[in-house]
Specification:
Elements lengths: L1 H34 L6 H17 L2 H11 L5 H36 L11 H24 L1 E6 L5 E6 L4 H34 L5 H5 L2 H36 L10 H26 L1 H10 L1 H8 L9
Antiparallel strand pairs: 1-2
Helix pairs in contact: 1-2, 1-9, 2-4, 2-5, 2-9, 3-9, 4-5, 4-6, 4-8, 6-8, 8-9, 9-10, 10-11
Length: 316
């Protein structure tokens, strides 16, 4: 009993910490981009889209999923029974598709248009159109999951409700799970991997147009941005893979060997996945000079640290 209380207390502290860091950090990102015209580049609009998606997760899935496991039954009504998977699934799709859009944009800008400035790429209307398409496509892909959630009443002696997936055909659930895994992770990460490998090879090629036409400073900027974007992708993949791996095991009925520990493993994987929402602002402050300067200007205590000589330092 003492171990259970300790576990719940530790997890509670972790969840609260994630919420505070993620909400404050992502709100700062959104504010920074919206309030400064110079920050409104295509890449930063995509980054803002990631921040909004992370905020959506923090005000929904971050709390409802662990509370559901803690309470043991569903107490939030039918609307949220359908809404929780919709919010969470949509957010994951938005993040992966946005990261993919950034990678594709960087690929065409750097590899195929290396003689232009790093920020001269697709027009803003096209960028906003892609963001809108990402949201619409994400909602569409998650809709079957939300539709097939159902509230099931457990009679006496329990007398409570559960919120569970209720597919008319079990094989459809497995097929949908595989499709989601492919479109949510496998396809985007293959495209992202290909794009960044090509960019990295191009920037390090002695005979590249970048080396001949651009200043050393511009090359450094591009490599620094590339490193930041790669770290964002790696962190996102590492954080969300355990959660999605457990879900695909459950959908394919391959979870028998972990069933006694499934709830604990699921909660652990959920904590790790939720931590993804607070990493990006930290990465921006660490590796992006423009974001770092805006963050320092916006937060008084960072200004004081800055005046005292305590500065964020780039290690790349």
């Amino acid at each position: 009993m003492a171990d259970l209380i300790l576990t719940r207390t530790v997890l509670g502290v972790i969840y609260v910490s994630i919420f505070v860091l993620a909400v404050s950090g992502n709100l700062l990102v959104v504010y920074t981009v919206i309030s400064h015209k110079a920050m409104q580049t295509v890449t930063n609009i995509f980054i803002t889209n990631l921040a909004i998606s992370d905020l959506l997760v923090n005000f929904t899935s971050l709390w409802l999923t662990p509370l559901y496991l803690y309470v043991g039954h569903w107490i939030w009504g039918e609307w949220l029974c359908h809404g929780l998977p919709l919010f969470q699934g949509t957010s994951i799709f938005i993040s992966t598709l946005t990261l993919m859009a950034i990678a594709i944009d960087r690929y065409f800008v750097i590899v195929h248009h290396s003689n232009i400035n790093i920020n001269d790429h697709m027009s803003m209307p096209v960028c906003l159109g892609i963001v809108t398409l990402i949201w619409a496509l994400s909602l569409l892909l998650v809709m079957p999951y939300a539709i097939h959630m159902s509230m099931i009443f457990i009679p006496k002696p329990c007398n409570f409700w559960l919120c569970l997936e209720a597919w008319t055909m079990e094989n459809l659930k497995s097929i949908y799970g595989i499709i989601v895994m492919a479109l949510q992770f496998i396809v985007p990460f293959v495209i992202i991997g290909f794009s960044y490998i090509q960019i990295w090879h191009f920037l390090n090629s002695r005979n590249s147009l970048v080396a001949r036409r651009e200043s050393e400073y511009e090359n450094i900027r591009k490599k620094r941005l590339l490193r930041m974007l790669i770290i964002m992708v790696v962190l996102f993949g590492l954080c969300w893979f355990p959660f999605n791996f457990l879900n695909i095991l459950r959908d394919l009925h391959l979870d028998n060997f972990i069933k006694p520990y499934f709830n604990f493993l699921f909660l652990l994987a959920h904590v790790i996945s939720m931590s993804a929402t607070c990493w990006n602002p930290i990465v921006y402050a660490w590796m992006n000079e423009a974001f770092r300067e805006r963050f320092i200007a916006a937060l008084p205590f960072l200004k004081r640290w800055h005046r005292k000589g305590i500065r964020f330092k780039l290690i790349f």
